[in-house]
Amino acid sequence: MAEYESHDFDVVIIGAGGAGLRAAIEASATGARTALVCKSLLGKAHTVMAEGGVAAALGNVWPEDNWKVHFRDTMRGGKMLNNWRMAQLHALESPERVLELEEWGAVFDRTPDGRILQRDFGGHRYARLAHVGDRTGLELLRTCQQRAVGLGIEVFMECKIVRLLQDDSGAVNGALGFWRESGKLVAFGAKAVVLASGGVGKTWKFTSNSWESTGDGHALALWAGADMIDMECVQFHPTGMVWPPSARGLLVTEGVRGDGGVLRNSEGRRFMFDYISDFFAKETADTIEEGDQWYENKKDFRRPPELLPRDEVARSINSEIKAGRGSPHGGVFLDIASRRSPEYIRRRLPSMYHQFKELADVDITKEPMEIGPTLHYIMGGVRVEADTAATTVPGLYAAGEVAGGMHGANRLGGNSLSDLLVFGRRAGQSAAEHALGRSGTVIDNAQVDAVSAQSLAPFERDSGENPYTVHQDLQDTMQSLVGIIRNESELLEAKEKLGELDERASKVGVEGHRQFNPGWHLALDLESMLAVAHCTTLGAIERRESRGGHTREDYPEPDPELGKVNMVTRMRDGAVVVVREPLPEMPDELKTLFEEAH
Amino acid sequence: MATPTRESTASTARPEATAPTPPATVTLRLWRGDEAGGEFRDYTVENLGGEVVLDVVHRIQAEQAPDLAVRWNCKAGKCGSCSAEVNGRPRLMCMTRMSTLDVSEPVTVSPLRGNPIVRDLVTDVSYNYAVARRIPPFQPGPREPDGTYRMKQVDADRVQEFRKCIECFLCQNVCHVIRDHEDNKPNFAGPRYFARLAELEMHPLDVLDRRELISSDLGIGLCNITKCCTEVCPEGIHITDNAIIPLKERVVDARYDPIAWLGRKIRRRPDPTPAKVAASFAPAAKTGEVISTDAPTRAED
């Protein structure tokens, strides 16, 4: 029998980014004995990378703003594929969640009368993003981290969870993992588990995501029998760095465009005016003169097309590059230097200034940046009930990027940080309430033994393939065949290659011993990334239309019928299958918000 | 001890233009080992240009040493995970461009010397998390009548400087109060946490008085302002000038205020922290039960 260290809690939260911390704070406040388990050190989660802000209709800058406008923007940005109830709760509750952060010590930038300042972002009708320069994610994470530490919540750092544990009825009753530092096995008994594990970016080659974003929570849920929805909807952020190679994919905040930056091709043309789709034509400026006046006067002028939702901008950049009008290193130009003063740029975008200066030797107050699309976010994820964040498996909850539905087919900038807070809190509360109604849990040693043996198998295969090689091939496959523009034949080819990669991943070998061994950690992460890759590819094959972050060149238009369904992926008999299921229907009183003239 | 200095990042040349013929290979001299001991080993890889130290470490991992232990997350200078000593200078590996280093000889990368070794480039940073638990958290005063909190941007600016901290702990690593005197650790917060305390003390909305704690338990007096911390801060936070010196002044003001002195004489100063918070200063209880004959090396952090 495997030897393992054991802990017992009411609620175990997997992931200590914004959603996990917010869930932990709420679960603890609800009275549950709560543990936070994370793969890195506390305070390093990918949330720190969020730059531009947290979207909330506070109405501090534009009193006209309210939850209904935010809700409408979110649904339209998501191409109406969103779970309407999640979008509604998000728009209703995000102002309260932001004000709560202030009560916990967050220091947002201020309006002249001392309230929280809000900035413009793509797809948001009004300046709506509460922010701290361009390091809002760090502020949010640190605030929640300090709050959680102040409450004395137990944190288990550098622990990789490999499987959820389930009782005879299938309900989740714990999680099993390994300490990264010692390589030893650890089991957490739990009456409820919250997945808050973030994204999947490392499945692709060029991504803004950190090493942790390997889809662990998606895979844990899938293996436990949970439904996933719309995994084909991934977001390529329009502006990632393209040069130097080591910085390729690093995020350049949308705040650059919100603060006046524009996109130009190699001919110097502001090409976004050539790509305004009918869907957004009514609310988008069609001349440079009008667009430029919008920054100061949002009542009388329409927004410039550089601030269309991210899917629209990313596809347009892709088209310009393909047409041969790209920049020297295969991107396009993002120019704020010619439009705003150096002082303004340094004050509004300090970390962008620093990032380009340090990594690319580019002074963004003097020269344009070279940028191109980078994989940034997955809208799809674990299917949850809107009000409770409950998945389709009893005892299992999900919040933040790992959960699907909130953002539909495309996420608006700034809606992620607010998502973390709104649904992190709801998940923590629901999980705690569920846990308080249950008696103790018993860990099933047979499950522990089986998982342990499987996880340690790479050490037995001295001559097995290097996991780094398999990972690189997976990234190449997803980048080239399941990338920003897709078609049936490439997707089918990807599906076949994923089968081969499964086979190779099951035979990888690792050198050395279990103590802090990155090769072994990657071998474990590979399983998660492959699970994600299967779901995304199957969903992408089945969604024969173009919608939001999912673009099919063989089906370039949205299909109204497919706009009414989720692509549901789940495990059946050891394999991932995909089926169409209808979206929850929006009540009539909310539908009217979309009928009003803009 | 040589005082580590912040290496100039003002290199004006582009990476591909620094030398007429860049060397075909680069060699990193990496420390490999664990708490029992170890050695430096050389790893030579192709010189691709445009890389940072962490990129080269990653290629060595992928091609030659898959079990090479290193911490990293964002690779963008925002998370503070990949701290190490590059040619003896405490740096973030993700923000140290190879083109700023002399690659005609091996580049030495070693773990932070101020921390116990875990393995290879990974060190035990748990001291920092223990200090964090000793700091009484933010406590706001009442809201304005309209339900908002108001503060001026100029007041926010002062606090935001400290809140830029990415917790890379380079400042903790070079602070000689603890680097050279392990026994000071229980009585000294270190520069990272003086910045945190300064942030709380200067926060326009915070109402808690932490001065007694800062001077007694957290040992501000031990700092003799050599500014090593400020020099290594990758975020350019003026830790000594803007955090530590003002804190020292505030603590002195509190200590020599005759009314406060009288108050301390007559009765013990009431603990300014709520009971719930005070309880959390103690390390969290170890709840781990070991189902094993083999004792675990750690139960929690």
Topology:
The complex is a heterodimer of chains A (598) and B (301).
Chain A: E1 4-14, H1 18-29, E2 34-37, E3 54-55, H2 67-77, H3 84-103, E4 118-119, E5 129-130, H4 136-150, E6 154-156, E7 159-166, E8 172-179, E9 185-195, H5 216-223, E10 228-229, E11 234-241, H6 255-258, E12 262-264, H7 278-281, H8 288-294, H9 310-322, E13 332-335, H10 342-348, H11 350-360, E14 369-378, E15 381-382, E16 396-398, H12 415-436, H13 445-456, H14 467-481, H15 488-505, H16 518-542, E17 565-572, E18 575-582, H17 588-595
Parallel strand pairs in A: 1-2, 1-9, 2-6, 9-16
Antiparallel strand pairs in A: 3-5, 4-5, 7-8, 8-9, 10-15, 10-17, 11-14, 12-13, 13-14, 17-18
Helix pairs in contact in A: 1-4, 1-12, 2-3, 3-12, 5-16, 10-11, 14-15, 14-16, 15-16
Chain B: E1 25-34, E2 37-46, H1 53-63, E3 83-86, E4 89-92, E5 107-110, E6 117-119, E7 122-123, H2 126-132, H3 153-163, H4 170-174, H5 176-179, H6 191-202, H7 211-215, H8 228-232, H9 239-256, H10 258-266, H11 275-281, E8 289-291
Give an overview in words.
Chain A is α+β, with helices and mostly antiparallel strands and 598 residues long. Chain A has helices at 18-29, 67-77, 84-103, 136-150, 216-223, 255-258, 278-281, 288-294, 310-322, 342-348, 350-360, 415-436, 445-456, 467-481, 488-505, 518-542, 588-595; strands at 4-14, 34-37, 54-55, 118-119, 129-130, 154-156, 159-166, 172-179, 185-195, 228-229, 234-241, 262-264, 332-335, 369-378, 381-382, 396-398, 565-572, 575-582. Chain A folds into three domains: 5-233 and 379-445, 3-Layer(bba) Sandwich (FAD/NAD(P)-binding domain), CATH 3.50.50.60; 237-375, Succinate dehydrogenase/fumarate reductase flavoprotein, catalytic domain (Flavocytochrome C3, Chain A, domain 1, Alpha-Beta Complex), CATH 3.90.700.10; 449-569, Fumarate reductase/succinate dehydrogenase flavoprotein-like, C-terminal domain (Methane Monooxygenase Hydroxylase, Chain G, domain 1), CATH 1.20.58.100. In chain A, strands 1, 2, 6, 7, 8, 9 and 16 form a seven-stranded mixed beta sheet that branches. Chain A has a four-stranded antiparallel beta sheet with strand order 15-10-17-18, with helices on one face. In chain A, a hairpin with a 2-residue loop joins strand 17 and strand 18. In chain A, helix 1 (18-29) packs parallel to helix 12 (415-436), helix 10 (342-348) packs across helix 11 and helix 14 (467-481) runs antiparallel to helix 15 (488-505). The N and C termini of chain A lie far apart (66 Å). Chain B is α+β, with helices and mostly antiparallel strands and 301 residues long. Chain B has two domains: 25-123, Ubiquitin-like (UB roll); 126-287, Fumarate Reductase Iron-sulfur Protein, Chain B, domain 2 (Orthogonal Bundle), CATH 1.10.1060. Chain B is built from eleven helices and eight strands. In chain B, a hairpin with a 2-residue loop joins strand 3 and strand 4. Chain B is elongated. Chains A and B meet through strand 1, helix 3, helix 4, strand 6 and helix 11 of A and helix 1, helix 3, helix 11 and strand 8 of B. Strand 1 of chain A pairs antiparallel with strand 8 (289-291) of chain B, so a sheet runs across the interface.
